[in-house]
Design goal:
mainly alpha; two-stranded antiparallel ribbon; 2 domains; binds farnesyl diphosphate; binds potassium ion; binds zinc ion; Terpenoid cyclases/Protein prenyltransferase; Glycosyltransferase; 44% helix
C-alpha cells in the first residue's frame, strides 16, 4: 500500500476530464469519497469520478486543466521523494518547515524594504506556523515586544514599523503576535486606551469598520476589530470622539450583525463588502466576526442563510485536487485550507451537525501537494513556499485533524465581560475516522476563531480582565 511511485492505470481519465461529461448525484459522490482513506494516492484518484464539465473551452477552463496537470503527479506519486506514512501519503516534513520558518524570521536584504509594511504579518505567520509545528516561541517574547513597541502609533494601533501610519490589518497581526509570545512585557507594551480610541475612528454608521481612518470599509475591518476588542477586553462603548457616536451610535456592536449579513451574496458565500464577490478569505472573516459577537449557533443562524452558505463552502472543495479554492471557477490554493477549511468548525457548531466536509481530501492535498521539497508550504506545486502559505496550510491541517466544539461552559475562569463567546471552545480530541495521516503528522491545536495556539488567547484575556482600567 505504501508505494512511493504508483502510477494509476486510470489516471488518463482524470487528466483529461473533458472527455467525460456525465451526471453524478450527491450520493454517488459521497459513496466514492467514503472509505477511501486507506487507499494510496493513485488508487484514491482512480476512484474519483471527474467533476461535471461543460464543453465550452475558456481561459478559465484551460488554466484549470493546466493546474490539474501540475498537481496530479503529486497526488498520484511522490515527486519530492518524501518519506511516506502508513497510508502511503507524504509525512508532515516538520523539521524542514521549522527550519524554513526560522529562516523567515531572520535577516532580510535591502530589497525587502517594500515588504516593511507587512512586517507584523510576517511575524504573525511565522510565530503561528512554528507553534502549530510544536515549537516553543517564548524565547521571542522580548524581541516581539520591542518590535511592536516601536511600531505602535501615538494615535493607537500599529503600522509596519516605527513612524508608519497605523492600519487595522497590521494592528490585528501585531496583537496576535503579542498574544502568541505572551508574557507581561508583551501584554503591557500594548496601549489599550489608544487602541480603543483608534478602533473608534474605524466604526461606521452602517455598522462596519474601515481599515484605516477614512480608508476602505470591508469585512476584514469588522473581523480584526472584534478580535482585538475581545482579546484585549476593551469596552464596547464607543469612545467619546468616535465619529460614529456623533451620528447616533453608542456601541462598537451597533448594526454590525446586519452589516455582516449584507455581505452574504446570492451564491451563499461572504464578500468583502455588500455587493462584492464572495471569497473564502472573507467568509472566514465574516464567520469569525459573528463567532466573536456571540455563540455561533445564535449569531450565524440569525445573520446568515446557512443552507446557502454551506452549499457555497462545500463547492469550494476541488475534486480531484481535494484542497479548496477561494471562489467560483478559480484554482485550488493551500492558503484556503484555512480560510475555507477553518470555517467548518464554526459552521458545524452553528448547524449542530458534523461531517459536512471531506477532511481526508484536504489533508491529502496539504500533505501531498502543498509541502515544498526543501521546507515550507505553498499554494500549489510549482509555486514558491512562503510564511503566509505555511501558516495557513498548517492551520487548515489542524482544522482537518482535530475536532473543535463550542461548549456552553466557560474556559478557565475567562469570561467576565463582553465578547466572551470565543472563549467557549473546546478541543474534543483528534478526528477518529479513517484518515490519511499518522499521529506523527498531527499539528498542534489552533484556536478556531483567533488562529493562535491553544490557551494563548485565554491567557491574554484573563490578564486584561484582571486590569482595573484601560
Ligand atoms: C484574491 O486574490 C484574494 C482576496 C480577494 C482576499 C484576500 C484576503 C485575505 C487573504 C484575508 C485577509 C484577512 C484578514 C484577517 C486581514 P487572488 O485573486 O489572487 O486569488 P484567487 O484567485 O484565489 O481568488
Ligand atoms: K490565490
Ligand atoms: Zn494562497
Amino acid at each position: 500500500m505504501a508505494s512511493s511511485q504508483a502510477p494509476s492505470s486510470r489516471s488518463g481519465e482524470i487528466t483529461s476530464p473533458g472527455n467525460r461529461v456525465e451526471q453524478i448525484s450527491d450520493s454517488d459522490f459521497e459513496e466514492e469519497l467514503n472509505g477511501t482513506a486507506m487507499l494510496d494516492n493513485a488508487e484514491y484518484l482512480s476512484r474519483i469520478t471527474p467533476p461535471l464539465r461543460d464543453m465550452l473551452e475558456t481561459g478559465t477552463s484551460q488554466v484549470q486543466d493546466e493546474t490539474l496537470e501540475a498537481i496530479l503527479p503529486f497526488l498520484e506519486g511522490n515527486p519530492n521523494d518524501f518519506d511516506l506514512n502508513s497510508q502511503g501519503i507524504p509525512k508532515l516534513q516538520r523539521k524542514k518547515h521549522v527550519a524554513f520558518l526560522e529562516r523567515a524570521l531572520g535577516y532580510y536584504p535591502p530589497q525587502f524594504a517594500a515588504m516593511d509594511a507587512a512586517r507584523p504579518w510576517l511575524l504573525y505567520w511565522t510565530l503561528q506556523g512554528l507553534t502549530a509545528l510544536g515549537e516553543d516561541v517564548s524565547q521571542y517574547q522580548e524581541r516581539v515586544a520591542d518590535n511592536f513597541s516601536a511600531a505602535q502609533h501615538p494615535m493607537g494601533g500599529y503600522g509596519g514599523g516605527h513612524g508608519q501610519l497605523p492600519h487595522l490589518a497590521a494592528t490585528y497581526a501585531a496583537v496576535l503576535s503579542l498574544v502568541i509570545v505572551g508574557g507581561t512585557e508583551a501584554y503591557d507594551s500594548i496601549n489599550r486606551k489608544s487602541m480603543w480610541q483608534y478602533l473608534g475612528q474605524m466604526k461606521q454608521l452602517d455598522g462596519g469598520f474601515t481599515m484605516s481612518p477614512g480608508g476602505e470599509e470591508d469585512i476584514r475591518g469588522a473581523f480584526c476589530a472584534v478580535v482585538i476588542l475581545s482579546l484585549l477586553n476593551l469596552p464596547l462603548d464607543l469612545p467619546p470622539d468616535s465619529p460614529a457616536r456623533a451620528h447616533g451610535l453608542s456601541s462598537f456592536m451597533d448594526n454590525l450583525g446586519d452589516w455582516v449579513s449584507r455581505c452574504q451574496t446570492f451564491e451563499g458565500g461572504i464578500s468583502a463588502a455588500p455587493g462584492n464577490e464572495a471569497h473564502g478569505a472573507y467568509a472566514f472573516c465574516g464567520l469569525g466576526c459573528l463567532s466573536v459577537m456571540g455563540p455561533p449557533q445564535e449569531t450565524l443562524n440569525k445573520y446568515l442563510d446557512m443552507p446557502l452558505l454551506i452549499h457555497w463552502l462545500s463547492s469550494r472543495q476541488c475534486s480531484p485536487e481535494g484542497g479548496y479554492n477561494g471562489r467560483t471557477n478559480k484554482l485550488v490554493d493551500g492558503c484556503y485550507s484555512h480560510w475555507v477549511g477553518s470555517c467548518w468548525a464554526l459552521v458545524e457548531a452553528a448547524a449542530g451537525k458534523k461531517g459536512l466536509w471531506n477532511r481526508n481530501a484536504l489533508g491529502r492535498y496539504i500533505l501531498s501537494a502543498a509541502q515544498f521539497k526543501k521546507g515550507g508550504l505553498l499554494d500549489k506545486p510549482g509555486k514558491r513556499p512562503d510564511a503566509y502559505h505555511t501558516c495557513y496550510n498548517l492551520a487548515g491541517l489542524s482544522a482537518v485533524q482535530r475536532i473543535y466544539i463550542f461548549d456552553e461552559g466557560r474556559q478557565r475562569g475567562v469570561g467576565n465581560g463582553d465578547l466572551v463567546a470565543p472563549f467557549h471552545w473546546k478541543e474534543d480530541g483528534l478526528y477518529d475516522g479513517d484518515k490519511v495521516w499518522d499521529n506523527d503528522d498531527v499539528v498542534d491545536r489552533v484556536h478556531p476563531v483567533f488562529v493562535v495556539p491553544w490557551g494563548k488567547a485565554e491567557d491574554c484575556r484573563l490578564y486584561f480582565e484582571r486590569k482595573e482600567c484601560l
